[in-house]
Structures are given as structure tokens and as C-alpha cells.
Design goal:
The structure is a homodimer. By secondary structure, chain A is α/β, with parallel strands linked by helices. Chain A has helices at about 5-15, 40-50, 60-65, 70-85, 100-115, 130-135, 170-175, 195-205, 220-230, 240-245, 250-270, and strands at about 15-20, 55-60, 90-95, 120, 140-145, 185-190, 210, 235-240. The first copy, chain A, has a single domain (about 5-270), classed as Aldolase class I (TIM Barrel, Alpha-Beta Barrel). In chain A, strands 1-2-3-4-5-6-7-8 form an eight-stranded parallel β-barrel, surrounded by six helices. The longest helix of chain A has 20 residues, at about 250-270. The relative contact order of chain A is 0.15.
Chain lengths: ~280, ~280
């Protein structure tokens, strides 16, 4: 999927919402536990109820790995289900991998070939040769961690770099932006630091940004749009727990759709300036 | 497993060797492809042939994920096999994970509860709250990336930090060393930068270091010992491809044992000064 295809969807759905599929067997509605594959069943119902409001889904791989081989099977099934039924939706593996080239090749194979993810989140610490094996895939994307939404992001990401006005995360963005281009490289910038989006936009005016931290983690959608939106939107804002666990009854998918529609409506208003 | 238990094994086997189980279905001997689970069969034979010379095994998770749910099953089987037959051997998941606390909890569950790994490699970029969920497990270890063995390690790990004499990797070690202690925190320091081990030892004289990059990546075992060894050894040196793919015939495990024994003999000599 390329930049314009994502932007077309944003225009069509009047939404830049990504829903995080952080599916936890201990948090899904009890009645699903009788089904053959509760994790798949939960995701399927969430996706079918929300797809009309959503441009991206982002399964968080940890939640599937926590269930072992069976969890991995559920993940493979939901990826296949989404890609078959909603091929226009952008599918991000939230995996936060990053290893030497030889190993990154294997992760790329896992997520881009065996499963048909469009994108994967990666950590930048090991540098270019840990990222480039993912960038050789046409129409696939790397979503590189720049400034994350957790408290401890400050431990290293905000360190000042000598002989520059940069903090580490500025440096990560500056240096890595030459490894790929606007059509294969996005960045994670947490909504909990929305004012920092201004700095980010000075370095990379055009790249898509994946914004976690709206909702459960406290970030503001309006601030994210104010500081981060560009002429082609350039934003994918993620919400996970606030949508998928909004309700734990048999109506969970219906309530998730209501929450998703609320966010989409806000996004429609925020998009009005550029569309 | 605690520090002294690892050290006891080092003394008993006169070895500080870790063998990386980077098991690639395209590189294992052809005759194994007829077996029910070639990946497990390969690992089992490698482990049985080399365990007497080895204090740790390190399956690289990417190689199993590249095979999907079936690869994950093979991984679960080999972890169980090693832990049952060789409970004294230290077992490291080379996973290089790192995510917000909520997600790190899930990875910890995957690797420390569902599978009985003793340790997991993590990337430091997201800071303390991405690491601490792993440190609450008694007798389990975090192996944090500090200075990696790949060329692009220089991209960020060697950046100079303002108002200090530190590079980023020094800062990672200094700050993170207070998150845990010598009994649950190790660091990855690549053998391809062996002289930098002197700096590392000034900051953390006592922690174990996991050293990749000896062998295929060109690092020197003698230099690693010279600059990195402490009174309780404090080193686990990893070799992967040089051992497990030393031969591709039916004698692959026998040849792997020969290569492992050669390294163990060198290590015995290097340990003579402290034992």
C-alpha cells in the first residue's frame, strides 16, 4: 500500500483512526470463551463492527505471543481475515523488533511474507542495517519509534546530543529519514507529548506519523491534529483499550462501534481544514 | 537461576560459551527435512552434542517466527527439551523486545511463564518502564542491548551526550544499572568493539556481559577476555553460525561438537587466570 492509497481511504472514510488489537484473553467478554478460538472471534467481531470508521488496525504482537503457538495461529487468522475482507485497510504489526540484518530478514519474512502485514513497528537502537531489510519490500512500511508515549520515554529519547540542538529522538528522525522515504517510512510520536509534534514536523513535514497515547494514556486528539497534521493528513491516531474494552457484555462489538464512530466524527471535523 | 549458579557452571565446564540457536530451515542438513519437526530435530541434536561444553543456549526468536505458528511450536518444544534434560543450562530468548509496561507484561508472560526461559534480550530505547516488568520475576534476567555488534551500531549508540563524556551506550548502562542488579541484569556488548569493554567495566565491574560477534562477525575471543573478564568471569560469549552450520552432512552435530570443544578449550585457558 502506498501513501496515496492510505490518503484516499482517509478521505473516503473521513477518518485517520487506527484501532489497536491488544486482545487479552483475560479482558474479552466471558461468553466468547466458549468459542473455538476466542481471540480470533473477538477480533473478527470488533473488526466487522468498526471497519467502516477505521483506516488501520494494529495487532499488538505481545498479546498473541503470550498465548504461545495457539496465539500465533489466532494472529495469522485475523490478519488473513482482515486482508481478505477489507483489503483497503492498512495493517500494522506492532512488534517493535530490531536486530542485526541477518535476523531482521527473518522478522521481515514473518510479518511481510508469511503474514500479509503492510507495516511493522521497529525500535531504532541498532541503526540502519537493522531497519533496511524491511525497506526493500515494495509497498510495505517501517514505523520507527521516535518519541514514545510512556513515562520512561524521557530516559533516553530526550537526552541532549552534543554539538547540536537535538535530543536523541530528533537525531533518530533526522538520520533515519534518509534510509527510506515518505512511501515506506512512518514514525511513532506519542500523543502525550503533542507539542513536540511541531519539532517533528520541522524535520519531516511529509511522513506519516503513528500516534499512540490518545485515550487510556491521556493524549488529546485536538492537539495532535493542531501540531501534527499536514496537507495529506499525515496522521494515523491509534486507540486500543478505549475502543475494544469499552464494554464486556454481548454488545461489546456494538459499543466498540459507537466509540469508534465518536472518534471518527471528531476526526472528520479536524480533517475539514485540509479536505 | 542466579549469578552464582551460572558461575558454578562456568567453573564446572571450564567454559563461558553460549550457543546461538539461529535455526534456519534453509540451512539445516537436507536429511532432516523428512522428520516430523526438522527445526526441533536439528536443535535437539545440536544441543545433545554440545551441552557438555556449553553454559547457555540462545534461540533467536526471529528464526522461529519466520515459520509462523509451527515455528513457535518448535521453539516451545526445544525450550522444554533443554530445560528438562539440562536444567543447569542458562536459556536466553534472543527477542530484543521492548514496549510500554502493559505490553512488556505480555512478553514477560510469553517468555518467562509459558516458556521457561531464564533470560530475554531487550532494547533500551523506551526506558525503564519497558524493562521493569521483566525484572520482577525472581531468578529471571534481562539482557539489555548496550553496544551491539553490527556496523550500524554507530548510528545512535555512539552519539555523544551533552554535558558528559558519555556516548549513548554509556548512558544506557549507567542509567539502567539501577533498575536491577547483578542478579537480574546483563548487557549485550559486541565483540567487534572489544576495546570498548574497558569503558563498560568501569561503569559495571560486576554484571554479566553477553558478547555476540565472535566468529562469523569477526570478534576476537582473546580481546574479549582481556578487556571484559572479571573475577567471576562475568562473560557469556555467543557463537551461532560458526557452530551450528559448521557442517551440513549427517555428521553436522558431531562437527558442531568439535567446534564447540575447540572454543571451550580456548575458554579454559582464558579462565585459568581467575579460577
Amino acid at each position: 500500500m502506498n501513501y496515496n492509497q492510505i490518503f484516499e481511504q482517509i478521505k473516503k472514510k473521513q477518518s485517520f483512526l487506527c484501532v489497536g488489537l491488544d486482545t487479552d484473553i483475560n479482558k474479552i467478554p466471558q461468553h466468547l470463551l466458549d468459542s473455538n478460538d476466542p481471540i480470533f472471534e473477538f477480533n473478527k467481531q470488533i473488526v466487522d463492527a468498526t471497519a467502516q470508521y477505521v483506516v488501520a488496525y494494529k495487532p499488538n504482537i505481545a498479546f498473541y505471543e503470550a498465548l504461545g503457538a495457539k496465539g500465533w495461529e489466532s494472529l495469522e487468522k485475523i490478519v488473513e481475515y482482515i486482508k481478505n475482507k477489507y483489503p483497503e485497510i492498512f495493517l500494522i504489526a506492532d512488534a517493535k523488533r530490531g536486530d542485526i540484518g541477518n535476523t531482521s530478514n527473518m522478522y521481515a519474512k514473518a510479518f511481510f511474507e508469511n503474514m500479509k502485514f503492510d507495516a511493522i513497528t521497529l525500535a531504532p537502537y541498532m541503526g540502519e542495517d537493522s531497519v533496511s531489510p524491511f525497506l526493500v519490500y515494495k509497498d510495505k512500511w517501517v514505523v520507527l519509534l521516535a518519541l514514545t508515549s510512556n513515562n520512561s520515554a524521557k530516559d533516553f529519547q530526550l537526552l541532549d546530543i552534543k554539538n547540536s540542538d537535538n535530543k536523541l529522538f530528533h537525531n533518530v528522525i533526522e538520520k533515519s529519514s534518509s534510509w527510506g522515504d515518505n512511501n515506506n517510512l512512518m514514525y511513532v510520536v506519542g500523543a502525550t507529548k503533542a507539542e513536540k509534534l511541531q519539532d517533528v514536523r520541522k524535520i519531516i513535514p511529509d511522513n506519516f506519523l503513528l500516534i499512540p497515547g490518545v485515550g487510556a494514556q491521556g493524549g488529546s486528539l485536538e492537539e495532535v491534529a493542531k501540531y501534527g497534521m499536514n496537507k495529506k493528513c499525515g496522521l494515523l491516531v491509534n486507540s486500543s483499550r478505549g475502543i475494544i474494552y469499552a464494554d464486556s457484555s454481548k454488545k461489546f462489538a456494538e459499543i466498540a462501534a459507537v466509540k469508534t464512530a465518536e472518534l471518527q466524527k471528531k476526526m472528520k471535523n479536524l480533517l475539514a481544514d485540509i479536505l
